[in-house]
Amino acid sequence: MTDEERKSVASTYLHNLDSGKEFFHLFTEDAEVYFPNWGLAKGSKQYGKLFSDLGALVEDFKHHHESINWVIQGDFVVAEGSSQGRLKSGETWTDSKWCDVFEIRDGKIERLYIYLDPEYSRY
Q1: What is the reported pLDDT for 110?
Q2: What is the structure's pLDDT at 38?
Q3: 112 burial class (0-12, 13-18, 19+ CB within 10 angstroms)?
Q4: pLDDT of residue 117
Q5: Is pLDDT larger for residue 13 or for residue 87?
């Protein structure tokens, strides 16, 4: 894969996540996904649960795609940016910083570690 192809997979994931479109087809069956305070999910059943649990908390959100910093090295794609959104509890955030580290091979996400402050709506 080229760097642009890897970036496209990561960007598609973020856009689909924002718009509520399906994105599991972008992951391998045995992918690892990490999210703070949730932990490490291994395999489609666990990462499906992780995203389901997060969806139960979040009303809506949007990544600020126009200002994402991209770093691509081999199979690794790092996306650093900010987001805004609202939890189902009513709490909001407007400029939360985050960083996602993807490992992408053969057009699929094998590993996604999401780094953000899990208390982002409290600031």
Answers
A1: 98
A2: 92
A3: buried
A4: 81
A5: 13
Six-digit token string for 8: 């496209």
E strand spans, 13-75:
27-35, 39-42, 58-63, 69-73
* Cα–Cα dist 44/21, whole Å: 17
Give the separation between CA 68 and CA 11, rounded to whole angstroms: 10
Position of tokens 């069956």?
A: 29
Written as six digits, the tokens of 81 are 């940016």
**pTM above 0.90?**
yes
With a CB cutoff of 8 Å and minimum separation 6, the contacts of 43 are 29, 30, 31
Name the fold adopted by 3-117. Nuclear Transport Factor 2; Chain: A, (3.10.450)
Buried-exposed string 71-110: b where 16+ CB fall within 10 A, e elsewhere: ebeeeebbbebbbebeeeeeeebeebebebbbbbeeeebe
Query: For residue 3, which amino acid is it?
Result: D
SS3 41: strand
Which H helix or E strand runs over 117? none
